[in-house]
Design brief:
The structure holds 2 protein chains of 2 kinds.
Chain A lengths: L2 E5 L4 H12 L3 E6 L8 E4 L11 H7 L5 E4 L11 H21 L4 E7 L8 E2 L13 H14 L5 E6 L1 E3 L13 H30 L3 E2 L5 E3 L13 E3 H13 L5 E4 L8 H12 L1 E3 L7 H13 L4 H5 L3 E2 L4 H5 L11 H13 L4
Parallel strand pairs in A: 1-2, 1-4, 2-3, 4-5, 5-7, 6-14, 7-12, 8-11, 10-13
Antiparallel strand pairs in A: 9-10
Helix pairs in contact in A: 1-6, 3-4, 5-8, 7-11
Chain B lengths: L1 H14 L20 H15 L5 H4 L5 H14 L1
Classes of the chains: A alpha/beta, B mainly alpha.
């Protein structure tokens, strides 16, 4: 049994990691801002303040009694107005978590980071950090600064870079539809719904003049698409594999350094998009003569997926070389991102209306 | 100009049957409670009705129905 301290335990991935740890019989201590979590020792705190707001008494009570700290608390926002909140959560949060780990004499610090530190780099290795890539938003900038803090920290630390996360590999279910994969599909889904309503309401002829049409099975021929790097890797991982792999890593003896938690051989974005769009009832067709409904479709796609456009247009290739070796027998390859898996994800997302 | 405002008002009422209260030229688009897709649908219908093409950056700048009517009027004048 390992003694594990977790930040972000109520978040999307944090709650899955915490559940996996307690299921496996490990002793979990969580830093929580709100109500306690069942089956977990909860200490009230907040990583955005010094020492996560822990009192000297709380520190004394837990010092020397923790094997590993998994730092999952983070804020994900891609808009241009959240710079301060992102800096507080992602940069200050990591600084304070590291200081708390020191004060508690935690043996190893595992920082859960993001593939977005790669910015616009087209290829990114586990040994890369600041390679002159352009960071495109405050989220990317704060995640890079957090990694720099961890890398500069004395003592055993590890960084796990996580790509886009999708729902459960067997059921497709998830609690978050905010990632690039889902937002791109949401854009097509909602454009199809809106066009279908107008098609039925008397706009059929106007749409057909623009090569927009619904066939008898309800499949939409759409002459506009989101610009995307079709040949680029669809670098997503299912949430269950991710949580299990973070746990396996946190429990692995003395694994330090930076690791990419990605599929070894991801399919292309083009393939994943084709499968998902077929499931949504959308067929991309060559551009037509254009017009109001074509502009409506393009504007709507670009509006819904506006923060994801750079991620669709240029997907970095993240190499995954070090994880299997360091985990040995504890390593489980990412489940195949095959047609059945994509279709399950799409079906659950449509049922949930991407929210 | 009055015609344009009336056309927009008519379309807004047709698109939003559940809308409570009056739709006037000074009604703020944000107060209509329409999501951005419904607004873009309205724009498509206006473009079709008047035979014009509005610019992307203009669409999200205007804040009242009168503002939208002004944009359409200047498009028609320059056509």
């Amino acid at each position: 049994m390992a003694r594990v301290l977790v930040t972000g335990a109520t978040g999307w991935i944090g709650s899955l990691v915490t559940a996996a740890l307690t299921r496996a019989g490990h002793a979990v201590t969580a830093i929580v801002r709100g109500p306690p979590i069942d089956g977990v020792t909860c200490v009230r705190g907040d990583v955005t303040v010094a020492l996560a707001g822990w009192s000297a008494d709380a520190i004394a009570a837990h010092a020397g009694a923790l094997d590993v700290m998994i730092h999952l608390a983070a804020l994900v926002r891609l808009d241009a107005t959240s710079g301060e909140a992102l800096a507080r959560a992602n940069v200050d949060g990591t600084r304070h978590a590291l200081a708390l780990a020191d004060a508690l004499a935690v043996r190893r610090f595992v920082h859960v980071s993001s593939a977005s530190v790669a910015g616009d780099a087209r290829a990114f290795a586990e040994t890369d950090l600041d390679v002159g890539q352009t960071l495109r938003n405050d989220y990317e900038r704060t995640k890079l600064r957090a990694e720099q803090l961890v890398a500069a920290h004395p003592g055993p630390t590890a960084i796990l870079r996580v790509p886009g996360v999708v729902g459960d590999s067997s059921t497709g279910a998830t609690r978050s539809y905010d990632g690039t994969f889902y937002r791109a599909l949401a854009a097509y889904h909602f454009v199809r719904e809106e066009l279908a309503a107008e098609w039925r309401a008397g706009e059929r002829e106007a749409m057909e003049r623009e090569a927009i049409r619904f066939d008898a099975a309800g499949v939409l021929s759409l002459p506009v698409e989101l610009a995307c790097d079709r040949a680029g890797p669809c670098a997503v991982v299912p949430q269950d594999w991710l949580a299990d792999t973070i746990v396996a890593f946190a429990l692995a003896p003395a694994a330090t350094g930076t690791f990419h938690l990605v599929q070894a051989a991801p399919p292309t974005i083009g393939w994943a998009l084709d499968v998902a769009l077929a499931r949504l009832g959308v067929a991309l067709v060559p551009p037509g003569s254009g017009g109001p409904w074509t502009r409506f479709a393009r504007r709507s796609l670009e509006r819904i997926a506006r923060h994801q456009l750079p991620y669709l247009a240029a997907a970095p290739r993240l190499t995954c070389a070090r994880l299997p070796a360091i985990l040995g027998a504890a390593y489980t390859p990412c489940p195949p991102f095959d047609r059945a898996c994509v279709e399950r994800l799409v079906d659950r997302a449509v049922e949930a209306r991407f929210a | 100009m009055v015609d344009i405002v009336e056309t927009i008002g008519g379309l807004v009422r047709a698109e939003l049957p559940g809308l409570v209260g009056e739709v006037t030229p000074d009604t703020r688009i944000a107060d209509l409670g329409v999501d951005s897709l419904k607004l873009l649908r309205l724009i498509a219908k206006l473009e079709k009705r008047f035979g014009i093409e509005l610019e992307d950056d203009v669409i999200f700048e205007v804040d009242t129905l009168r503002g939208l009517a002004d944009v359409i009027a200047s498009k028609l004048a320059s056509a």
